[in-house]
Task: structure prediction
Amino acid sequence: MRIGEIAALVGVTPRAVRHYHHLGLLPEPVRRSNGYREYGIREAVLLARIRRLTELGLGLDEVRNVVADEKARELVEVLEELDEDLGRQEAVIRERRARLAPLLAEVRAGRFAAEGPVSPEFARLLVGLGEVPDSPIAVQDREHLAFLDALVPEEDRGSLMTTLYGMREHAGEVYGLLDALADEEPDDPQVARAAAALAPLLPDDLAMHFPDNDAGGLADGIFADLAPAQSAAVRRAMELVTERQEGPS
Result:
């Protein structure tokens, strides 16, 4: 058989056969007087074995070790290691699919596809918030939440999203208070009143996630995106939350 014939017979490419020769996996067969390789049954059997081992997931170095041992004493050990590795990969895939399932369901339902892919915590928060109300600040809030989901470290994200999830029942009130400040000045008396109304709606541990000394941090990025009066009201509300935590001086 010529190289193209044995490659077609075994189900590999001629290029793969040449590569196996180069790596020493497949010994060079005898050559005809015209210089062409002449393959026989022995080479076909070995080539088929190499193909099966690579299809199982063995690397070529591992395949070399297996085929080099005439008694295949290493084959069981190599296959056991491969089985363990595949088991670990399978567990990772199952975990990823479990995380993907609720996100996929929400996207198929036409909800918040623009934010995806998102973390499971963020997906749960968005489901809890429900449909986006007819409110400019509500739309902006989705963007801010996506911003936090993307940038907050994974070890902190769960705690933050749980805190925000606890605020979902007050979302409508918060949006209403902030929408009313869209065109006001930061020193307008309405800002102080809005801050006083906002503070009781904010959980105590919210300020922990947005420290006032974190210049240039996530909070500053969100505050900069708000209208001046909205930003002033939220900052003051956060100060009131901190004061509430500290208690009477």
